[in-house]
Amino acid sequence: MSQTSTHHSAKPVLFVLTSHGTKGSTGQPTGYYLGEVTHPLAVLQAAGIPVEFASIQGGEPPVDGLNLDDTINARYWSDSAFRDAIRHTQRLGEVDPSKYSAIFFAGGHGAMWDYPDSPDVARVTREIYEAGGVVGAVCHGPAALVNVTLSNGAYLVAGKNLSAFTDDEERAVKLDQVVPFLLTSTLTQRGAQHHPAADWTAKVVVDGRLVTGQNPQSASGVGAAIRDLLLGQPAQA
């Protein structure tokens, strides 16, 4: 192995996207929220940290929040390499967790349906975290953490400080009766210490190697916190 490969970026960050495309029984489309992928991606790539993509089912996941007035969204959406990567995401169940320095769960309402009960989410997250990696999530992305347990049987979020899409924000978008559960209430029931900010205000919480953000406004900040943790870690041999 080359001596020059001991840089922190020897191991990429795994971005996970939801494969779920409808909001419950409403028939309304959803999916992963584009800005919650592109904004942290821009931060990590600017720091030279590689990123790979996976989704629950693999292939091309459904996209939501396709706001191309957002300059970062527009830049990536017109980038052929990004679009090709998104069209061919790895199936999370086929991922080797040992390849990654961190796992990041993007939000979008679809996450509320397929993240929580995915055995692949639980396994890959636990293995990366217990190997010393970083676990990140933003907005509805922390739905991935609701049922993740560590090898000792405790919930990963138990006793941890975190942030996630608030119950008030869910009511504000009138989906509190549509989602299968209220995210922050459920995380709190798992023993998490939730730290809310005002609706639609950026809020990022770092607790050890757990990085979480409240809403789309928090996506860049979550990327920056993951970057800082990875750059502060000893070089990976």
From TrEMBL:
> Quick check: keyword Protease in the entry?
yes
Q: Name one GO biological process term.
A: proteolysis
A matching Pfam family: DJ-1_PfpI
Q: What superkingdom does the record give? A: Bacteria
This entry's Gene Ontology molecular function terms read: peptidase activity
- Looking at the record, the residues that make up the DJ-1/PfpI domain are 36-219
Hydrolase recorded as keyword:
yes
Keywords assigned by UniProt, alphabetized: Hydrolase, Lyase, Protease, Stress response
Q: Which family does it belong to?
A: Belongs to the peptidase C56 family. HSP31-like subfamily.
Full protein name: Intracellular protease/amidase
